[in-house]
Amino acid sequence: MRPFDDATRRNIANACAAFMRLPAGEVPTTLKRAAVAVALTASEDDDTAFLLTLRASHLRAHRGQWALPGGRCDAGETPVEAALRELDEELGLRLTGAQVLGTLDDYPTRSGYLITPVVVWAADSAAIRPNPDEVASVHRIALDTIERDDAFDFVAIPESARRVIRFHHQESLIHAPTAALIYQFREVLAGRQTRVTELEQPVFAWK
């Protein structure tokens, strides 16, 4: 258990600081930049949780899918700025750079994006107001959920030599990129330098 308090915030910030991101040259530069937020907040039991959204069913892209809050970077915008803006637009959470605990590896997607995960501390969880234009629902996933031995699995598909990662959430299977980013965050919390850029997405997410 990780209570949602200052000690947990410091421990996670230290874990993020100890994580060595892949150099920028390790991934293609032709991909469009995007960012997501691993937004840490209090669970219903006052443990530390992260926010996971179910995308609205009327969206043009990836509708009805599980996702971390985020989206494409605007022109001249850094990934951190984009993640904070998207948190505000999707969930009504207005955070500043002071709440940023760190960033994880950039993840290249089959659909042409390079996603930067930004870990943030969202203390005022009462401020969460999902934007119905983008978000169908928002869920608090306790960190001990992703630390279970059976939280993730890896499967083979005939279309790729790379392993497909899956996160088991209740009755749902959540795939990469979201599953890959959550998995790396789990590994960072454990002090492991685990890479996820080679973890595959299911074929339906390649477009």
Automatic annotation (TrEMBL):
InterPro entries linked to this entry: CoAse (IPR045121), Nudix_hydrolase (IPR020476), NUDIX_hydrolase-like_dom_sf (IPR015797), NUDIX_hydrolase_CS (IPR020084), NUDIX_hydrolase_dom (IPR000086)
Gene3D superfamilies: Nucleoside Triphosphate Pyrophosphohydrolase
Keywords from the UniProt entry: Hydrolase, Magnesium, Manganese, Metal-binding
Pfam hit, one: NUDIX
Location of the Nudix hydrolase domain: 31-169
PANTHER family for the chain: MITOCHONDRIAL COENZYME A DIPHOSPHATASE NUDT8, NUDIX HYDROLASE
Protein name (database record): 8-oxo-dGTP pyrophosphatase MutT (NUDIX family)
Organism of origin: Bradyrhizobium ottawaense
Source taxonomy: Bacteria, Pseudomonadati, Pseudomonadota, Alphaproteobacteria, Hyphomicrobiales
